[in-house]
Amino acid sequence: MENPKLKILFDEDVNSFLSSIGQLAEIEAGHVFCNECGSLITNDNFQIIVPQENSKFLYVCKSPQCVKCYYEKGGK
């Protein structure tokens, strides 16, 4: 099993990063939602981005309840 790597993203790098993974336009268009609560994800309110199969991503918003729920489920 491969060890996951923690990556930290600074505020000033958010748009560049989202663009590099092909997600900036999706977020700006309002097509991305929190995996836990269903709230709209913006480039200012996400806490976690998890790569999935087929170049898709799972997002978790900054809500402490959502982050806690995500980790309680084993980070899946």
Walkthrough of the structure:
The protein has one domain (11-72). The protein is globular. A two-stranded antiparallel ribbon has the order 1-2. The protein has helices spanning 14-20, 24-28, 64-72, and strands spanning 46-51, 57-61. A hairpin with a 5-residue loop joins strand 1 (46-51) and strand 2 (57-61). The mean pLDDT is 88. The chain starts with 13 loop residues before the first helix and ends with a helix. It has 76 residues and is of the alpha+beta class.
What order do the strands of the largest sheet run in, or round the barrel if closed? Answer: 1-2
Radius of gyration: 12 Å
Alpha carbon gap, first and last residue: 15 Å
Query: How many strands appear in the DSSP assignment?
Result: 2
**Percent in strands:** 5-15%
Annotation field: number of helices:
3
Q: What is the ordering of alpha helices and beta strands?
A: HHEEH
Helix content: 25-40%
Quick check: average pLDDT? 88
Tell me the overall shape: globular
Number of domains: 1
Uncertain spans: none
Helix/strand structural class? alpha+beta
Q: How would you sum up the major sheet?
A: 2 strands, antiparallel
